[in-house]
Amino acid sequence: MSVIVRFAPSPTGYLHIGNARIAIINYLFCRKLQGRFVLRIDDTDITRSKKEYEEAILKDLKWLGIYHDSFFRQSERLSRYKQVMDQLIQKGILYKCYESPEELEFKRKKAISKGKPPVYDRASLQLSEAEKKSLEDSNAPFYWRFKLPSKVVSWNDIVLGEINYDLTNISDPVVSKSDGTFLYTFSSVVDDFDSKITHIIRGQDHVTNTAAQIAMFDEISDCKYQVEFAHLSLLVNKDGSQFSKRIGSLNLQNIKDMGVDPMAINNLLATLGSALDTVPLQTLEKLIEYFDITKFSSNSPKFDLESILKLNKKVLHNKTFSDFEKILGSNFIKSQEAFDLIHEHTASYNDYPKWNEILSDNFQSKLTFSNEEKDILTHAIDLLSNIHLLTIETGNQFLTDLSNLTSATGKVLYMPIRKAITGERHGPNLIDLLLHLGKDELLRRLKAAV
Known about the structure:
By secondary structure, this protein is mainly alpha-helical. It has 18 helices and ten strands. The longest helix is centred in the last third of the chain and has 20 residues.
């Protein structure tokens, strides 16, 4: 059987790092097995779903290099959900419920206060025919629930191992609300069944959903529907606290704006929480070969932006000048010589246009200088003016003479010069910078600083 997986984001916000991890792992898993990748937009939440979020999700997936084999929106399949719902009603699997949201919340709190699990009590099944008729005649709002069988469902999870889940410990899932809106638990099962999904890979927070959905699969399909599950541990913050998907800085758009290469994200998220080492691979093809879903554990991996930025630096340093020309264009990289000068001292794509500006002829430092620093720069101008040809030898001698003249050494000697010629406090080797800029340009920058 051909492997078919799906990624099903809701267009109620931008793609965050947790969802991106699920997408990447699904994609790598199916491509390694020459399978198919289905992209489904879960947009049944009409009030929160927005077109702009859907477009942003598609753009982010393309940026990561994730391409789908088929695509659909749940909002386009409402008639199909209604058809399946009617079939289950005829089978007696679905039943009407009449409680208001306030009544359900009261029941939930009451159960918790008594130390009991907040499982729906199936009160609507206890209604007499007269009570039902009275509610119908009064046009009382109602919703539909799926009646779960009283049994234990089991599956061999690819990540978590054997799981046995007693369905009596969970509420009968709501299939549709009083306004006719279909809920995720039900619509997802119909979609997975119709799409012939073979492997569902998602977070551990869906384990309860899976238990209920297995029962739904059994009722929807004429024969036992074969699907495998893999529930990945959820990301946590660096301090071990619960990871919040609502942290704005952790959506992919903002991370991309930080100058991060998509392969830095792919490499990290494809291995975070597994026994695989995170390495700076340059292509998805190599990552597909390297990936192994059986290496994931149930332990929650720690995630922080610093990890991506460190890995991003390694990914970028393995790229060539030609690679950067294709990615950023020649406007951002002055020349091979300039690239060689700054390449080892950059951590993101944003550093390259910055250094391109620094190395341009019209650059002028915007930093301020103390009187002591200006004194060092003044002596530097005098010494540099007397150098006929700037070479490695004469450049080193220039710095030695400047140190002897000012009694300054190390950072005290070098920092004023670096600030004056680059506007930065860190960067390439100072001698390399001097040789790249040349005597005339150095003098212009030094004089402008004093």
